[in-house]
Amino acid sequence: MRLNRIIALFLRHMYLYRRSMPRIMEILYWPVLDLVVWGFITVYLAQFRQNLPKFIPFFLGALILWDILFRAHQGISVSFLEDVWSRNFLNLFASPLGPAEYIFSLMLVGFIKLIATASIMAALAWFLYSFNIFLVGISLIPFVLNLIIMGWSIGIVTTALILRFGQEAEVLAWALGFLFMPVSAVFYPVAVLPPFLQAIAHYIPASYVFEGMRSVISNGGFPLEELLMSIGLNIIYIVLSFLFFHWNFRIVKRKGLLVKIGE
Amino acid sequence: MIFFLGDQYLLKTPVALAEYLNYHQKLVFVGDFTYFLRMFESIVEVKGLTKVFKSLKAVDNVSFCMYRGEILGLLGPNGAGKTTIIHMLLGLTTPTAGEVNIFGQHLAKYRKEIMQEANFSSNYVSMPNSLTVIECLKVFARLYRVKNKEEKIAELLHIFEIEDIQDKLVRHISSGQQTRLNLAKSLINDPKILFLDEPTASLDPDIADKTRRLLRLIKKNSNISILYTSHNMKEMEEMSDRIIFLHKGKIIAEGEPKTVIKSFKGKDLEEVFLKVAREEKI
Lengths: 263, 282
What we know:
The complex is a heterodimer. Chain A contains eleven helices and no strands. By secondary structure, chain A is mostly helical. Chain A has one domain (19-44, 55-260). The longest helix of chain A is centred in the first third of the chain and has 31 residues, at 55-85. The two termini of chain A are 34 Å apart. Chain B has two domains: 1-40, no CATH class; 45-277, Rossmann fold (3-Layer(aba) Sandwich). In chain B, 39% of the residues lie in helices and 25% in strands. Chain B has eleven helices and twelve strands. In chain B, helix 8 links the parallel strand 9 (193-197) and strand 10. The two termini of chain B are 33 Å apart. Chain A binds chain B through residues 82-83, 86-98, 250, 253-256, 258-259, and chain B through 51, 53, 58, 83-84, 87, 90-94, 111-113, 115-116, 119-120, 122, 124-130, 140, 143-144, 182, 185, 195.
C-alpha cells in the first residue's frame, strides 16, 4: 500500500471537480432534494395526527405515477446516451435522419419501456399491498398521458443540454426529472408548499395530475379542471422543448460540437 | 478504367485530360463516349468553403470539384482541415462561409435527399456496440430505406467476409472486423458518393491491403465517387486518382499524385508530406 498512489488517484478525481459545475452541484443536489421532498411529506402527515388519510393509495399511486414520468424522461435521455457512449452518433446523423425523427424514435422507445415498467409496478403493488392503481378510474389514462408528455419534454431538454455541453451534462439524464419532484406535489398537496414554491407548482403539469389523483382517491369524481390545466401546460412545454432542441442542434452544428459528441 | 489514348498517355481523370490537351492540343479518342461525357459531371462542387472555430480558421476559402467515378484524396498534416471538410460535406458541421453542392443540389437545403445517395465511414466512429453485426446492418438498411434489405445485407456480409460473425455483438469483434462492418454499412444504400475518413487506420497491413483492394473493386464495379483521407502516403498514392493537399486549412496543391509530387520536387508523397508538415516548402 503506497500513499503516493492513493493520492495520485485522489487528485485524478479532484481535478474533475475544479472545473465542473455539474459535478459540484451533484454533491448538493440529491441531499437537498431528499430533504425538501421528505420534509414536505412530514409536514403534510403531521397535519393529521391520529387521523391519517388513505396513505397507502396516496403513496403507492403517487409512486407509480411518478415513475411513469421519470421513465418517460429517462427513455429519451438514456437512449440518447447509449448512442453517445457507443460513438455511433455520427453514423446516424451522416444518414438522412433528421433531428425530429431522432427524437420521435426515442419517444417511442421511452413509451414501450414505461408501459413495461408501469405494468410491473402496478402488478406488484396489487400483489404485495392489495393496491389497485385502476381505482383512480377512467381519469388514469389522461393522467398517465400527461405525465408521459411532461417526461418527454424534460427528456428532450436534457438531450439538448447534453448535446450542447457534452459529457459534463450527462448527469442531467438522471437528475433533471427529479428537480421537478418537490414542485410536482407527488406525495403531498400543493397547499403544503411555501407560497413561492406554490407559484412554481402552478406551472408544472404534473402537480395537477397528482392533485387530481388525490382528489379522485378521496372523493371520487373526474378532476376535469386539473386535467385541462395539465394538458394546456403540456402542449406548451412539448412545443417549447422541440424548439429548444432544434435551436441547440443548430448551435451545436455551427460550433462543430456534434462531431465531438462521445469523444 | 482507361478511356483516352494519345501517344503513350493513358488518361483517367478530367485533370489528366486537361493537362494532356494543354500540351498536345489534340486527342485521339478510344472508348465509350458517354463515359467520356459523364467524366466531366461533377458530383461535388465546393466554393469558398470556410470554417472558423473561435479564433482558429480550420478551413480557409477552399474550392474544389469532385467528378463521377473518381477517388479524390484529401491529404495534409494533422489540423490541416481534412476531417472538418468531410464533416461539412456531410452536413454535420455548418460552414462559416461558402457553398456546397452535391449532385447539383444545395447541401444546406437538400441534406436529406443528398444523404440518401451518400454514405460515410470513419475508423473513429463505431457501430452500436451492444448490437450484433447483422442487427447493425438491419438498422442502417432501414435508415437508408434500402429495398431488398435481406439480400443486400447477405451480399455485404459475403463481400466483406463477415458472414461468420454476423450474430456476434459488435463489442466482441476485432477492430479489423469493425472496420469491415463500418465499410459494409457505408455501402448499404449503394451510394453514389462515399466519404471515407481514414478507413484503414489501426488495421494490420494484411487487412488494410484487403480493404484497399475491395474499395478499388467496388469503385470499378459501381463507378462510385470516393472522398478519401488517410495518413498513409503510400495508400493515398496508390488509391487516389487525384489528391488535394491541404495545409493549415488551405489548398496548397491539387492534381494527380505524380503531378503533386513533381510540383514539390519530391520523390514520393511521403517526402512531400514531410516537407509540408515541417514547412520546408509550401
